[in-house]
Amino acid sequence: MAVKGKTADGGEQGKRNTMNRLLAAARIEFASKGLAGARVEEIAREAGVTKQLVYHYYGSKEGLFVAVLDESSDNIMSELVNLSVEQLPPPQAMRALLNHFFDQYRFDPFLGSLALEGIRYHDAHQTPRNRFLELAPALIGKLEAILLRGAASGDFRAGINPRLLLASASLVTTGWFTNSYSMSALAGVDTDSEEGMATWREYSADFVLASISLGAGIVNAS
């Protein structure tokens, strides 16, 4: 058990391990109960530390919540930025990126709930550090490179705004998880079912690709 800022295994590595346990426990608690309903005592118990140590590291429950959001954003965005698609033809590269958007939520049972809670929090608060915003330019650059290759190869229309495409593509793909009630009712399939997952994963990628393909009748906004 850790007390007064010390960790059981000592040193910086021990501190890092303790913080990792705290973030993992907090992620589940916040995703399950929201910021308002989450309890620091429960997070500390699950992580095997004292409540005082949580406050020592993060200052407050909100501070811990921001750290959880930051870590989640870092993991999500870093995966996307580092996704190896440069060797693929532009349509396949774009589909791989879109599918990865979807799969990050598909294979993480807490991400949809945590994302919704994070949206509510960021709508009402300003945080001094935000890895999502810090890594967004790199992801936009990656998307722009695919679009430029696609325009050169004749697969995509020229002059597509990568920022607007990224914003719309992320909503189309991940909305299956962050707005599951409406999506299930409108699409006519259960968002939690294998059929529903497979249907929307393919359809959402097809939808985005159709909007940027050469000859698509979409008004370009830049």
UniProtKB/TrEMBL annotation:
Residues annotated to bind DNA: 39-58
A Pfam family this chain is assigned to: TetR_N
Coiled-coil stretches noted in the UniProt entry, renumbered to this chain: none
DNA-binding keyword on record: yes
Ranges of residues in domain HTH tetR-type: 16-76
Family annotation (InterPro entries): Homeodomain-like_sf, HTH-type_TetR-like_transc_reg, HTH_TetR, NicS_C, Tet_transcr_reg_TetR-rel_C_sf
Source species, domain of life: Bacteria
Keywords: DNA-binding
One annotated GO molecular function: DNA binding
PANTHER family registered for this protein in UniProt: HTH-TYPE TRANSCRIPTIONAL REPRESSOR SCO4008, TRANSCRIPTIONAL REPRESSOR
Stated name of the protein: Transcriptional regulator
Organism: Pseudomonas turukhanskensis
Lineage summary: Bacteria, Pseudomonadati, Pseudomonadota, Gammaproteobacteria, Pseudomonadales
